[in-house]
Design a protein that fits this description.
The structure holds 2 protein chains of 2 kinds. Chain A is mainly β. Chain A has no helices and 9 strands. The chains are: A mainly beta, B mainly beta.
Chain lengths: ~110, ~110
């Protein structure tokens, strides 16, 4: 799986958009970009994933550059409950694949009042 | 929304003892995983399981570890003879193939 690079920490004011960047310059054509977060010591929580198109769900938006070498997770209106470590993970995916997730150190997002 | 449940939430065991961590994956999921996270460190993959056999395992998953799906609902991780360094949070996850993995809230294993 391709390696990802994320800033170690970021701050965001409550109510503002949080934009979390991720570099994955060695991504292959069959690799998806996944985002998870971990609040305190809870289990990682799935947020969103994408292959090449931008994606949006009720939690966040994922913007993937055209060359797929980087992406940005956007939390449109961050709240204190979004304070967590956010992981950008590249993973091969296909039918019948039980491929593992390889977690890095992620970005620690601190949302403040 | 269906979720992965893990029991117990906290397990305290004497070194050298066997421990079994239990997980109930999401009911229609077919792929099962165990990960662990030593305090302050990254989440690490241990093993994946599909069709009643191990699909992949990491270097951490040595002969002291085993997994089993004893019935249609549970997925267990057994550590035969625990060591101090096995102290960690253990997370179970499940997925429908290539769909995202969903994690439980973990079992904190403390080895004394």
């Amino acid at each position: 799986d391709a390696k990802t690079t994320q800033p170690p920490s970021m701050d965001c004011a409550e109510g503002r958009a949080a934009n979390l960047p991720c570099n994955h310059s060695t991504i292959s054509g069959n690799e998806y970009v996944y985002w998870y977060r971990q609040i305190h010591s809870q289990g990682p929580q799935y947020i969103i994933h994408g292959l090449k198109n931008n994606e949006t769900n009720e939690m966040a938006s994922l913007i993937i550059t055209e060359d797929r070498k980087s992406s940005t997770l956007i939390l449109p209106h961050a709240t204190l409950r979004d304070t967590a470590v956010y992981y950008c993970i590249v993973r091969v995916a296909g039918a019948g694949t039980a491929s593992k997730l390889t977690f890095g150190t992620g970005t620690r997002l601190q949302v403040t009042l | 929304e269906p979720e992965v449940t893990q029991t117990p939430s906290h397990q305290v065991t004497q070194m050298g003892q066997e421990v079994i961590l239990r997980c109930v994956p999401i009911s229609n999921h077919l792929y099962f995983y165990w990960y662990r996270q030593i305090l302050g460190q990254k989440v690490e993959f241990l093993v994946s399981f599909y069709n009643n056999e191990i699909s992949e395992k990491s270097e951490i998953f040595d002969d002291q570890f085993s997994v089993e799906r004893p019935d249609g609902s549970n997925f267990t991780l057994k550590i035969r003879s625990t060591k101090l360094e096995d102290s960690a949070m253990y997370f179970c996850a499940s997925s429908v193939g290539y769909q995202p993995q969903h994690f439980g809230d973990g079992t904190r294993l403390s080895i004394l």
